[in-house]
Amino acid sequence: MNKNKFFLIFIFLFYNILYPTNFPFPQFRKYPYGIKVSTFTQEELLEKLIKTYTEWKKNYLTKQGAPIGTYRIQRGSANNFDTVSEGIGYGMLIFVLMDGIFDNTRPYFDGLFRYYKYYLDNNGLMNWQIDRNGNVIGYNAATDADEDVALALIFADKQWGSKNSSINYIEEAKELINRIMKYQVERPSYMLKPGDNFGGSDLTNPSYFAFAWYRIFKKVSNDVQWDYLIDKCYEVLDIFRNKTNTGLPPDWCDINGEPVSNYGYNYSYDACRVPWRTGIDYIWYGDTRAKEINLKISNWLKTITNSDPTKIVAGYKITGEPLVGYSNAAFVGPFGVGSMVDEELQDWCNALFDRLSRFGDGGAWGYYQDCLKMLTMLVMTGNFVNFYEEQKSSFTLPKCQIVSPVEGEIINGVAPVKVYCEDEDQISKIEIYFLNNKIYEKDISSQTVFLTYNFDTTNFFGQKGVLKTVCYNVNNSSYAYFVEVEISSYTQKPEDGSGKIKVLPQDVFVGNTQDIVLTFIATKDIFLGEIEFVLPEVFKNNYSEIKIMRRNGWPSINSYNVSNDGLRLVVKIDKIFFSESFDVVIKNFKVPQNLGEHIILVRTKTNGGIAKEISPQPIINIGITQNVEKKYKLLSLNNDFTNEKIVFDTKNVHIFNYKGKKIVELKNGIWDGKDEKLNYVESGVYFYITENGKSGFIIVLK
Question: Global pTM?
Answer without folding.
Answer: 0.69
